[in-house]
asparagine synthase (glutamine-hydrolyzing)
Amino acid sequence: MCGIAGIVGSFDQALGTELIQKMLSVIEHRGPDSNGYWSRNGFAFGMQRLSIIDIAGGDQPIWDKESGVGIVFNGEIYNFKKIRASLETSGIKFHTHCDTEVILQLYLQKGIAAIHDFEGMFGICLYDPGIQKVFLIRDRLGVKPLYYYHDQKSFVFGSEIKSILEALPQKPELNKQSLWHYLTLRYVPFPETIWENVCKLEPGHYLEYDLTAHTSTISKYWEINFCSEKSVKTRDYEKEFETLFLEAVEKRLLASDVPVGILLSGGLDSSCVAAAAVELGHKNFHTFSIGFEDGGQFNELPYAKKMAEYIGSNHHEVIISQNQFTDFIDEFVWYADEPLADLASIPLYFVSKLASKHVKVVLSGEGADETLAGYNLDVLAKKLSYLKLLNFLPSCVLKRLPFAILQNLSTSGYISFLKENATYMTNIFSEDEKKKLCLFSAQKSSREYIKDLYRKSRSREPIDQLQQAYCQSWLVEDLLMKADKMSMATSLELRVPFLDHKLVEWCATLPLEWKVGSLARRFTTKRILRSFAEKRIPKEIITRPKQGFPVPAYKWIQSDLFDFAKENLESKSLETFFHKDELSSLLQKLKDGDLHIAHQVWNLIVLSRWINKWNA
């Protein structure tokens, strides 16, 4: 695990060395154990290393002497030992024991098609002087970020945007379209970033840069397709899931030469990961949880502790205060690179910091809700089942019924019901609210952006379509982005078994009744996972309501931290972008106790602090 960076441009070897050193210095937190770089006239690349596999011999860049091909790599290839054994059988000799050299040697055998053989999370740069190409490759689900900047003079890339900014003569302009989407989504969606001309390489894609022509092309090598199948009575879905999930957990436990722990929230997903680890024979491992001084409804520590006692782990807890939460915000917006208004990001940093004192690698439960239909999708599925029954009625009849939901059905029809209503995880500011608030406009509405996510679905089932939308954007740019940035800020590697691509492909075709249940069986979220959990974890954890990562900050900014909120919304950093009277109106509504307004205000607080920190 590490951070990578590189640059193509008009410079000599000495300047290239200077540039790559600057780019690496700002991401040292991603890999404090060592760094390595290489420069020639016109090209330089390097990495910061967090030693996980082959601690003594895995430093990068790694080179093939005969071809001159070099590689820097961020991530883990979980099946590298299997690939290595196959390559050794064909006569390939290795000089290290790390997965990086396996990537390099398989590329030399298969070319860019080698990426189809890799199981893992990765951001890869391959430099091939023989064909004068640089390849950037991002993993299938987007667990590891990879950014690039391309203009007529240079091509720059890195694991974090801050590396790229170090290599540019001046900061790019703020991307107003990205800012517009952020206000609704609370994150900046790919392929753009908050900066003009700085882009994200999309998950499941690779970029090919021609060093001679100075052109780049982007190709897709994998995509997810949620299209639930009809249930087959002869198939044992529970056994199939058990096999795939245990394999996914085991891969992430074994691919390490250092101790591995688990972030344990006390919820179903992380508890299942912990139970799987015990079942696979991993005893006395470390688990980590976080709570708040407020306690009450925001305290999940009792559930986490109960699970830790149940599996016999070495359990560690950290409790953070209101002051710790707010004092960290400026550091948070620096580590995050872009505005990201997910409240759980900050406690994730603190629990990662705790974990990094004991282990270098942790597993977590991210991805289960998106791939197995969690959150409140049982409620949605029940509603959709009734709408499906009423869909036979003519639209002229539905329009006259005194229910808005049926009037919407008359316009969209059952198949497009969620798409036409732009149903999504986040909707912090509506289009109309943004038009009133903002001093700028955007070419594309966030509502249309969400509809575009639905349009990529090939399924006629709305739940499939919603999962497709979630996994394309929300999962990548909110959950996985905060997981990567906050864990790497503490030099900790975070692995996500639920996003093993073989397991995800299986989940994508899983019958809906094994995800959300049915009218006949009772609607429930993640039915297949609950079935797995029944024999493995305490019942009260299985049946407790989904809370996400409960954080009391919305309550804080309506009371103790109201002055803090006021200070940020009245700061000069927001004057360029928003109407002052609308900001004042939001503060008044916040004071009156409107919870939705608290979400909006938090979005703007994060943005205010981000603008100040980055001088945007």
